[in-house]
């Protein structure tokens, strides 16, 4: 019978069978990000993986690549079109609107799998993991500064090298409309060379053309109007304030940065690293004050960002496990109940040590081989004689000498507390 295999672009992650060596780093990065989010008093939110397709059509935009090409959509048994979430923001805002929470201020973080039907590539699969934060009910100004503080702390804590933070401002509604009209006029002579999707973008949201990956179109954009020339002074001041506030980090104002989703307005940003190659962005976001009203709610000041966990794990330079490791080896013939009680008590007195209890009944030589493979610094060995005398044999596995000594259980408690 043929083996059942996973779907294309939907990887398993396990420290025993790592994909590209990324699993251990991915798990560690997730824990590090949670610690950062909690340090800013951001609360966790969990939204469903499945949503109505209309949620993403209305939020992300009918002319975005996500809606046109990448949605995992299908009909359920009631003939409703439902979709595996391609991003996290829309679900969070749907939750706010559905529960009439637009009048309250909230700071949320989330983490989990997302789905996009695109060609699998390094650092981006059809099922990928994303973390995000959303600041809801906060006006422009201080929220931008705090969000950039989060970004800088992430880069520092994960020790990301060769990073650059790009920032821009899309202006208010009037400046955005004025700039969009200028882009339309600029592209009038080039209309015949545009493909169908770009013509639709020119009609619906001309700013999306600035986000193109088409190299020919990028050349056309060389002499296009520049967004920063249309911005009010307050927007320029905000960009300069952000740049000046984080001088320890590489930050540049990029007037071509618009982000890829239709709901952005105001301040936008992304962080890139040359270590990722062509797909260099590992986090990004911006302000989206009108999204809640587009989903049937009231206008609500909002800003947020998303982090590609596979991508950021690839470029993070952190030790995946700083804890000491030890092995608790129970030899054959020993009363396992008493031995496991000892191991349980040890774990409760020192959380800085990872203690693996060997569940097999192999020879001592085989168990020590396993402990070395597990990278244990020491082994606690208990046989029938040790158990009878309330003793433990401690074997040092860090040094070639492999020193060992018999100690009482009370002495072991003291040693274990200080590991």
Describe the structure.
With 419 residues, the protein is of the alpha+beta class. It has two domains: 23-171 and 231-315, Bira Bifunctional Protein, Domain 2 (BirA Bifunctional Protein, domain 2, 2-Layer Sandwich), CATH 3.30.930; 324-417, Anticodon-binding domain (Rossmann fold, 3-Layer(aba) Sandwich). The chain is 36% helix and 22% strand. The protein is built from 15 helices and 16 strands. The strands form three sheets. It has an eight-stranded mixed β-sheet. Strands 13-12-14-15-16 form a five-stranded mixed β-sheet, with helices on both faces.
Reading off the top of the CATH hierarchy, the class of the largest domain is best stated as Alpha Beta
State the strand order across the main sheet. Answer: 1-5-6-11-10-9-7-8
Number of strands: 16
Name the CATH superfamily assignment of the largest domain: Bira Bifunctional Protein, Domain 2
Short description:
The chain is of the alpha+beta class and 419 residues long.
Ordered list of secondary-structure elements with their pairings:
Layout: H1 23-39, E1 43-44, E2 50-52, H2 53-60, H3 65-70, E3 72-75, E4 81-84, H4 89-98, E5 106-115, E6 127-136, H5 142-157, E7 163-169, H6 173-187, H7 196-204, H8 215-220, H9 233-245, E8 251-253, E9 267-273, E10 281-287, H10 291-294, E11 302-308, H11 309-315, E12 324-330, H12 336-349, E13 353-357, H13 364-373, E14 378-382, H14 384-388, E15 391-396, E16 404-408, H15 409-417
Parallel strand pairs: 1-5, 7-8, 12-13, 12-14
Antiparallel strand pairs: 2-4, 3-4, 5-6, 6-11, 7-9, 9-10, 10-11, 14-15, 15-16
């Amino acid at each position: 019978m043929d083996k059942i295999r996973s779907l294309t672009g939907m990887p398993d992650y396990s420290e025993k069978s790592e994909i590209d060596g990324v699993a251990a780093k991915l798990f560690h990065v997730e824990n590090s990000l949670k610690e950062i989010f909690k340090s800013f008093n951001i609360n966790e939110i969990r939204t469903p993986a499945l949503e109505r397709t209309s949620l993403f059509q209305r939020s992300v935009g009918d002319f975005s690549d996500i809606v046109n090409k990448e949605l995992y959509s299908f009909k359920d048994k009631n003939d409703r079109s439902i979709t595996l979430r391609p991003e996290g923001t829309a679900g969070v805002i749907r939750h706010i609107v559905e529960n009439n929470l637009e009048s309250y201020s909230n700071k949320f973080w989330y983490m989990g799998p997302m789905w996009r039907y695109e060609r699998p590539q390094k650092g981006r699969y059809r099922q990928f993991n994303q973390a995000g934060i959303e600041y809801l009910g906060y006006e422009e100004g201080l929220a931008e500064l705090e969000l950039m503080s989060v970004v800088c702390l992430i880069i520092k804590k994960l020790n990301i090298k060769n990073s650059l933070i790009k920032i821009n401002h899309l202006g208010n509604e009037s400046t955005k409309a004025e700039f969009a009209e200028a882009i339309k006029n600029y592209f009038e002579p080039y209309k015949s060379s545009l493909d169908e999707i770009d013509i639709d973008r020119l009609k619906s949201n001309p700013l999306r053309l600035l986000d193109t990956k088409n190299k020919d179109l990028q050349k056309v954009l060389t002499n296009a109007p520049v967004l920063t020339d249309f911005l009010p002074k307050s927007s320029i001041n905000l960009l300069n304030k952000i740049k000046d506030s984080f001088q320890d980090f590489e930050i540049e104002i990029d007037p071509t940065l618009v982000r890829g989703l239709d709901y952005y307005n105001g301040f936008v940003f992304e962080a890139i690293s040359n270590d990722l190659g062509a797909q260099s962005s590992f986090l990004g976001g911006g302000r989206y004050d009108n999204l809640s009203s587009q989903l049937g709610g009231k206008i609500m000041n909002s800003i947020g960002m998303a982090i590609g966990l596979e991508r950021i794990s690839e470029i993070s330079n952190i030790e995946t496990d700083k804890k000491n490791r030890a092995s608790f080896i129970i030899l054959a013939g020993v009363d396992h109940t008493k031995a496991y009680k000892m191991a349980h008590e040890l774990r409760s007195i020192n959380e800085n040590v990872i203690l693996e209890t060997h569940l097999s009944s192999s020879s001592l030589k085989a168990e020590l081989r396993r402990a070395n493979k597990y990278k244990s610094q020491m082994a606690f060995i208990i046989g029938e004689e040790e158990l009878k005398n309330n003793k433990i044999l401690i074997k040092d596995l860090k040094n070639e000498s492999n020193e060992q000594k018999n100690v009482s259980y009370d002495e072991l408690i003291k040693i274990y507390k200080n590991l």
